[in-house]
Amino acid sequence: MPDLPEPSGADASPAYGAAAPLAALAAVPAVAAVRKRPRPGERRVQILQTLATMLEQPGADRITTAALAAQLQVSEAALYRHFASKAQMFEGLIEFIESSVFTLVNQIAEREASGALQARRVVAVVLQFGEKNPGMVRVMVGDALVFEHERLTVRMNQFFDRLEAQLRQCLRAAADADGSVTPTVDGNALASGLTALVVGRLQRYARSGFRRSPTEHLDALLLRLT
Fold first, then answer.
1. How far apart are the first and last CA of the chain?
2. Which of 64, 98, 186, 197 could be cross-linked to 175 through a Cys-Cys bond (beta carbons 3.0 to 4.6 Å apart)?
3. What is the percentage of the chain residues whose pLDDT exceeds 90?
C-alpha cells in the first residue's frame, strides 16, 4: 500500500510525513513464501493488504471471505482467527484511512497559519490519499460497504463529517481574516462545498475504473474557491 504523497503544483506543501498505523501493509507480501508461520500480527496485516488490493479490481464491490481466503491460500477459518467478522476487516481498513489522513490534517493545522491555505492542503491530501490507494476509495465512497454491516457506512460518514468540521474551522478563520461580517456562515458554506467536492471526486475516480484522477486541475480549482 503506497505512502501518502506530498501535494504538488501551486499549493505544494512541505513534507508532513506519512503516519500510518498499518504502514507495514506496504512491505508485507500478500502470501508469506519464506516463513510458514508469520510473526504475530503479520497475518492480520496480510489479510488487510490483500482485501485492499482485491478492492482495486473491476467488479470487486463485494468480496466474500471465501474469495479472500483463496487469494491468501488459507482456509476461511484461518481468517476468523484474526478477525471476528468480515466487518471487522473493513473496520481495519477504515482505521487505516482515518489515521493516515487525520495525522496529516493535524500536521497541516499545526504548521500553516493561513486558514485558506490549510483548507486547500487538507482537500489535496485527502484526494491524493485516494489516488494512491484506489482500493481504499471504494471503502471511502461506500461502494464496498453496500452489502456489509450498517455501522461501517456510519463510521465512514463520520469520517467526512470530521473532515468538514476541520474545513469549517480553517475557513471561518480565513473569512474572519478577510474581514467578512459573517465568517461563520461563509466558512460553513464553503466547507460544505469542499467536502462535497472531495466526495464527488473520489466517486468519479472509483466509477471511472480509477482512470479519472481525483486531483485533476485541483490547484487551479482550489485557488478559485478559497
1. 32
2. 186
3. 76
